[in-house]
Amino acid sequence: MTQLQSAVVLITGAAGGFGQELTRQLLLKGSRLILTDRPEVDLRSQIDQLHHTLGQTPGEIVACLSADLATPAGCEELYRQTQALKSPIDVLINNAGIAILGHMVDIPPERWEHLMQVNLMAPMRLSTHFASDMIARRRGHIVNISSLAGWIAMPGLTAYAASKFGLRGFSEGLRHEVAPFNVNVTTVCPCFSRTPLLQCPRFGLWEQADKTVPVPLTTDPVKVMARTIRAIERNQAEVFPDAIASSGRLAKCYLPALPDWISRQIGLSRLPS
Prior knowledge:
It contains eight helices and seven strands, in the order E-H-E-H-E-H-E-H-E-H-E-H-E-H-H. The protein is of the alpha/beta class. It has a single domain, classed as Rossmann fold, CATH 3.40.50. The protein has a seven-stranded parallel sheet, sandwiched between helices. Strand 4, helix 4 and strand 5 (140-145) form a beta-alpha-beta unit.
C-alpha cells in the first residue's frame, strides 16, 4: 500500500483539469504537494482560489514551481528545483499533457513533435530522474497518466495516441525494472473526461468537424481522479478509472475488430462531407 498521508507528491500539469482535481483530493488526503505547470500559467492564483473553496485541509502545498517540460533543460530544471526543497519525492504524478486533433498530414510537424516532448519524453525524463532517488531510498511511486488512446488509436488522434501508447509501454517496462527496489509504477488510462483538453487545437478537415464530444463518451474528472488515487494507494499496476475505458480495453483485447470499426465510424461521422 502507498501511504498518501504526509507523503510528498509532485504533480505536473497541476493547473489542468486532472491536475486541479488531484490537488484538491490529495490535500484532503493529507499529502504534501509540490505543484508545477508551464511558466505562463498563474498557478498560485488557482491555488489561492482552491484554498478559499476548501478552507483548512489536512494536507499542504509545499511549493508551486514553473517548468517548461517540452525541453530536456526544463525537466532538468524542475528536478533541480525539487532537490533544492530538501523534501524527497514519495510520489511523482506525470499528469502534464496536451492534445491536437487532425490527420497527421495536416498537422505542422513542430506541433506533433512538441506534443511528443510533453506527453512522452517529459514523463520518461522525470521518471528516470526520480526513480534513481526512489531506488536509493528503497521506496517510491511513479504515476503516469496515459489514456484509453494508449490502447485504441482513433482517427484524428494519431499523434496523441502514439504518445500514450509509448507512455504505456514505458510504464510497463519501468515497472519491472524498479519493482525489486520497492518502487511502484501505476499507469492510468481514462477515456475522454470533461477537462479543457477536449478543446484542443484542430487541423485540416477536423477544423470544420463537430467540436463537441458526445456526452455519453465523457467522464467526470472528480470520479476519475478518485479512482486513480485509490489505485495509487493499492499499488495497482494499471487502472481504467471509468466504465468506458474499462470496456474499451476489454474490447480491444478480446474483440479487436470492434473498437477498430467504432473508431472508423466515429471518424467518418465527425468529418464534414
